[in-house]
Design a protein that fits this description.
Blueprint lengths: L1 E3 L3 E5 L2 H5 L8 H13 L8 E6 L4 E6 L14
Antiparallel strand pairs: 1-2, 2-3, 3-4
Length: 78
Amino acid sequence: MRLRGSRLTLTALDADELESIRWDPEDEDARELFVRRLRADPGARGFWVWTATLDDGTAIGNGGFGGRPVENRRLTVG
């Protein structure tokens, strides 16, 4: 799943894609949590981790949500 803008592209990662990326050591526990959650619910891609890249493919950051929306139809953004 990709969202392309005029200056950057946002890509929703699945568990395999996320496993291939190494984050800073202080964030590695969060990455491992996201991988586990995506393995348990592969259809939740897009509700966890997104990566941002420039037109030349340079990764400039990541962000995402805290899983699928809950009963009140709200997402946690992080």
